[in-house]
Design a protein that fits this description.
The structure holds two protein chains of two kinds. Helix content of chain A is 0%, strand content 56%. In chain A, the strands form two sheets. In chain A, strands 2, 4, 5, 6, 9, 10 and 11 form a seven-stranded mixed beta sheet that branches. A four-stranded antiparallel beta sheet of chain A has the order 1-3-8-7, with no helix packed on it. Chain A starts with a strand and ends with a strand. Chain B is mainly beta. Chain B is 0% helix and 54% strand. In chain B, strands 2, 5, 6, 10, 11 and 12 form a six-stranded mixed beta sheet that branches. Chain B is globular. The mean pLDDT of chain B is 92. The chains are: A mainly beta, B mainly beta. Chains A and B meet through strand 5 and strand 10 of A and strand 5, strand 6, strand 10 and strand 11 of B.
Chain lengths: 114, 117
């Protein structure tokens, strides 16, 4: 595997379910990100991790819970979601946190909440 | 706060025609500027970036962009579009998040490019 991978690619869940999204980067980067991409809205930054430490929680509801066990893996735990949470969830990584660093994106997980 | 505007939501061009996608940003200092492309069902891929120096930057797939400070613009261009260029294009500004030691990207809403044969 190369680059940034995300699993699953598609997920359908009910409002009472608990599920997790997984992201893995094979680039040796130190920073990882979760974004939400909804139709007709700009990408929304959700969380930022640097060396497994969360440095940003962008006013995200607590029903989204991130976890970064090491610098290569990032999870997004989901519980009691709402239909408006249906979106494409993108993971990204970058060499570091400086604003000039290119971010490398995974293919995303298409989430549908029923 | 910084912002990015992509005035065109959807652009249609014929294959072989030239292309220009517009991007305007709002930020107090010189930002780091990026163009990303997203094909259907895929993540975002970097086309090119501007940090400093020559205001005309070359990217992958034959794309280029020009930074114009006086107009706060960073428009993306390609002289001859191929059918495979059909995708959604995002302009982004990288700035240091206020009061923190890290940077963050602010994205425009994207421009969808359709290419007619």
């Amino acid at each position: 595997e190369t680059g940034v991978t995300q699993t699953p690619r598609h997920l359908v869940m009910g409002m009472t379910n608990k599920k997790s999204l997984k992201c893995e980067q094979h680039l040796g980067h130190n920073a990882m990100y979760w974004y939400k991409q909804s139709a007709k809205k700009p990408l929304e930054l959700m969380f930022v991790y640097s060396l497994e430490e969360r440095v940003e929680n962008n006013s995200v509801p607590s029903r989204f819970s991130p976890e970064c066990p090491n610098s290569s893996h990032l999870f997004l735990h989901l519980h009691t979601l709402q239909p408006e949470d249906s979106a494409l969830y993108l993971c990204a990584s970058s060499p570091g946190l400086a604003p000039y660093n290119e971010q490398f994106f995974g293919p995303g997980t298409r989430l549908t909440v029923l | 706060a910084q912002s990015v505007t992509q005035p065109d939501i959807h652009i249609t061009v014929s294959e072989g025609a030239s292309l220009e996608l517009r991007c305007n940003y709002s930020y107090g200092a010189t930002p780091y500027l990026f163009w990303y492309v997203q094909s259907p069902g895929q993540g975002l891929q970097l086309l090119l970036k501007y940090f400093s120096g020559d205001t005309l930057v070359q990217g992958i797939k034959g794309f280029e962009a020009e930074f114009k400070r006086s107009q706060s613009s960073f428009n993306l261009r390609k002289p001859s579009v191929h059918w495979s260029d059909a995708a959604e294009y995002f302009c982004a500004v990288g700035v240091r998040a206020g009061g923190t030691s890290y940077g963050k990207l602010t994205f425009g809403q994207g421009t969808i490019l359709t290419v007619h044969p």
